[in-house]
Amino acid sequence: MLLKSDEIVRALSGEEGPFGRLRIVPSPSVEEIRSSGAASVDLRLGRWFLQLREGRTALLDPSKRDRRDEESSFPRTVFVRFGDRFILHPRKFILGITLEWFKLPPQIGGYVTGKSSWGRRGLVIETAAGIHPGFSGCLTLELGNMGEVPIALIPGMRICQIFLHTAGEGDAVHGGQFLGRRRPTLGELAIDPVVEALAENL
Amino acid sequence: MLIFRYHSLLGFVLRSTNIRNSFEIFDPLLRISKCLLGPDARLVLSSEWSFSPFTFSQVFPELPGFVFIGLPASESNNALIIPAAGHELGHTVWQLKGLQAKIERQLTTLVVHYCEKNWNEFQACFNNSPDKSLLTTDMLLISQWTPALRRALSQSEEVFCDFLGVRLFGESFLHSFEYLIAPNVGRSRDPYYPGIAKRAQYMVRCAEAVGAHQPTDFAKRFSETPASLTRVEKFLLAASDSATEQIVQSLIETVIEVADNAGTPRFDAQTIERAFNDFKDVLPASDGHSLADVVNAAWKAYLTEDFWSEKTVPNARKFEVISELAFKSIEVLEYQTRVWDYQKRTMKKDVAEV
Questions:
Q1: What is the ipTM of this complex?
Q2: In chain A, how many H helices and how many E strands?
């Protein structure tokens, strides 16, 4: 069930309720959420970026067991101060991060989507990035400029929104490689045994 | 020639842009620098491989008001060493506030007094001293005790810088000092620094004076191999040690006066506790914290065994996640400060327009 604005406000303020306490740091304006009536919370862009460089890797091959060398050779970390900007040129892609750090209670999951006002101008953010109940950390954003003109990414700007929904009973998902991080990460591509099995010659 | 003069500075500036640096600490350190040195102070925060932590002891006349702080490159992603910046900032404060000139006379008197009090040893060391009443007028005698004065001045500067670190960062400065110094690894004493155990004792005294908690038996954790010195060197070192020890209280008072008058933020036990509890929930501090509060909470979390359950944060990632939380807390501090400052300014403007 999607949380409505008044339920989000209750979860944020830690009032007794069915969902447990949702924490977002820095905290969004409760008045804004309440008055907007939207069933989502706007998120702001953080200051760390990870740029995937062309020309360093010929091919990303999911059937290779050890991809560490090829992957570690191409990302470039970029830090942008408040007040400065990162220009994302047409047809370019970069990983960003939310300014906000989340801690979801065990009964709440979420997914992040872009803002339509940006999407219509070509800035595409990964759609339906799921966030597990119990997650704690900043969210890595996949930002692509599918438009025709360069777009200035300014730390602190509203960049995307998170929709929150209730999760069934059970333990929250803890740990995981993305927990407790303030900078965007590529994460590891898991080896798929099915791909390996299919590749074997008879 | 010009490049030779500045090449170390150019390397330092170049490393300041390296992405391994944790840029989040720049803003709060700049704010502290401006508090201490005035609104025109500018900061270059960098990392160092060769000698670390590090600061340029000389102030470049072409770059007035610049503070250069280099933190260990190998520890760039470690929030626990941030307090070391307090010591390094101390060197610039010492220079720009002319504190050496202020205590030089006091130290000279103390060194001369030590020579008078230990006249027989002085004579035995230098073998040419007819009359101790000539200690401050005879050029030869002056040249004999001057090395002790130089060492006392250097030691006092180091002690002052430690005290500024303690005043700015409280208990966390003591922890980071111990972490970086790695006591009892058999290094021998540098005469331009106080003995390490004494230095730790002085820090404990300063911590008491500024109301900071001290780790249990902190001073006892430090020892060093005595340097093998000649009789003359031993005498000079004893004279400088004695002089430094006698101005410790005065240095504590100076640090408190300088920092309090400048209005530099103080650590606060309640805010540290709140930040510690936020960290326990795997959340950055979010509520009225200062840089010192964050670092103290981070140290407290780091030193707490089983701070998180294995399921919440695996123990192998404890150190990394604490640093991430601390840096994020510092970024949140900058974000909130900027937003509040802006709101205050625009509100004032609105009121003025009305």
A1: 0.89
A2: 5, 12
